[in-house]
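Section 5.1 Outputs to date
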Amino acid sequence: MVAGLVDEETSIQVRREGSSADVCIVGMLTLTEARWLRHHLVQLVNEGIARLDLDLGQVNATDRVGVAALVVVARRLRTLGGRLRFAAVSPECELTLRQHHLFIDELDGCPRRPS
């Protein structure tokens, strides 16, 4: 398990197993965190991770820049034949994703965390 502090309000935990990784983000997914997150998730994909399961159930704030980071990672995965899946989403995160019409298929059937 790899854990890291993105900033004083956000942390990330990564658990790798073979070509899969479970990533849990706690805190915010906004402009401040997006660059760091995008860099590290794309690095995982470049190192051979083909399936990325994101737990966004503890994300309490998100914006379009944070969502854009997820889009970049998802595109990189698809280019290499991989897949991004949501293990959980918070209501705040789901609202932002749906407002931007992103990951709708992935959100359907995804476990929700209560507000």
